[in-house]
Amino acid sequence: MMQIYIIAFLALLGRSFAIPQNIPGGRRYPEGSRGDRAGHEPGSSAAEKDFINEELLCSGDMSTPYNETCWNTLKVAEYIVKWEQEVTKCPQGNNTCIQTGCKSNEPWSSCFLRLATGTPDYNCTQINIGHCTLEGFPLKDPNSLDMPQNRYVVRNLFAINNFFVNWYAAMQFATSAAVRAVPKIIATLDPEKEADTTLEAILTALTIGLPFLSLPAVGALVPAATGAVGTLFVTALQQAPSVTEAIWKSDGESTQVVQMGELASELDQLNGKVGEMLDRGLAIIMTDVSTFAKFASSGSFSGPDAISIPKETAKLDLAFKAHLVTKAMSANDWWVYYGPPDNADGTWSNSTLESNAERYVCNTTPKDNICDLIDSHGVPPMCQPEDWSIYTSNVTHRAYYPSQQQGRNDLPSAHLLHAIADNEWGSLEAMMDGAYDCEVNKGGPSPGSAFQISEDGRFSLTCLSQLHIVNGCPDVATKGWQEGCNWFLERHKDPPLFRNGECV
């Protein structure tokens, strides 16, 4: 079961719609923004110039482009939290009160939009296309001293809703693409259809596809712009972990076991469940003002361009494929050995694809960091086994060798690695390094534990990989790599491995 730990919320802070008393002449600008942002002395000409530029940049003028810095410059988070605390909560049926206050049971976001725009039709609490549009909006009182803050609150409400709407549309495309890839993955890695998983694990692997694209290990597989959106989203989730809890919370209905080979028949159910998950995340933002303030705190949703992903975003299914591939490998007795290390002290700092190729006399595929013992004619070199290949991580420099246990040889190791790389079924780096981190540092994977969130909101996607990983050289730290790998070499002595092609 997923383990999600949530940060306790701090006491709410902020300010109201009222005209501030601390600014001479009633000028609406927050404390601390004048004269100190660039290190100038208050009252100096340089400070005055900075203040004027900042005031123009973050003004309430609807013709002024939006800017990411204005969320913090205007202290919008404090403003909206205090507004929600102080706005009148009207009794049901009091039509006079709701001219300046919130209706009974009205979400704060709907109330704010109604009062700020004078339009009651905006509903940003759900993924409902057309009810919360980015196509410009009127503000009820253009002369309000709170105009700059109002403008950025409304902008963020629309931008965040727009993000979730487009994410949901992209997820429908990604889910369909992922399901279409299942038959080939199963035919290659799980021909006897031995692999199964839970519906919860599948839904998790599908929906963490966007955060997954932010990982450095996945970066080479995705467009930079897509990876950037994934990074911004992860940052927002780290600031507001209650959104993470809402999206990926466990429910009893999703613990049912699903055969991977039958996922195509589950497509409609998957799309419906994904929509419910994303709706839960959006709803808590739009109904809990503190969560909204934290989720928007980076300023990313305050910029001139809306954060979004196209409907047909490529690679959004990579996390699902990586999870599916490693589950299928585990169900079919694949183990991954790490080592031997390149250094005598048991570390990998000098290990590269090239150094491993020289050591093992193998043929390299540089674009995939794979070195195998199959030559251009499909025949292994003399005295070397066909069922051997090694993948070298660019991040950790560890070398990984996948091998099937129980005397099985359904698929040569080299063919396995190339199938994953050539079909883009996931990042080998994320699969192998992730399995190492999960097995060694976290005690091994468990069903449903595709990712974790720490108390500070940090993501860990290491256990997305469900591979069983083993130290191929347990004594190398004290004996050096060749002697320390005797256990590993003994197991693979016929024909020999890691012996520079010698025939013994």
Description of the structure:
This protein is an alpha+beta fold. Helices cover 41% and strands 7% of the residues. It is built from 18 helices and 10 strands. The protein has helices at residues 45-57, 70-73, 76-86, 108-117, 147-189, 199-207, 209-212, 224-239, 241-248, 267-287, 289-295, 318-331, 353-360, 413-422, 428-442, 476-479, 481-484, 486-491, and strands at 196-198, 257-259, 334-338, 363-365, 370-372, 389-392, 399-404, 452-453, 459-460, 468-471. Strands 4-5-6-7-3-10 form a 6-stranded mixed β-sheet, sandwiched between helices. Strands 1-2 form a two-stranded antiparallel ribbon. A hairpin with a 6-residue loop joins strand 6 and strand 7 (399-404). The radius of gyration is 28 Å and the shape is elongated. The relative contact order is 0.12. Mean pLDDT is 74; it is low at 1-52 and 494-504.
> Globular, elongated, flat, extended or rod-shaped: what is the shape?
elongated
Number of helices: 18
Mean pLDDT across all amino acids: 74
Largest sheet geometry: 6 strands, mixed
Structural class: alpha+beta
Per DSSP E runs of 2 or more residues, the count of β-strands stands at 10
- How far is the N terminus from the C terminus? 49 Å
Helix-strand pattern, N to C?
Answer: HHHHHEHHHHEHHHEHEEEEHHEEEHHH
Strand order of the largest sheet: 4-5-6-7-3-10
Helix amount:
40-55%
Q: What low-confidence regions span 5 or more consecutive residues with pLDDT below 50?
A: 1-52, 494-504
Radius of gyration: 28 Å
> Which percent band covers the strand fraction?
5-15%
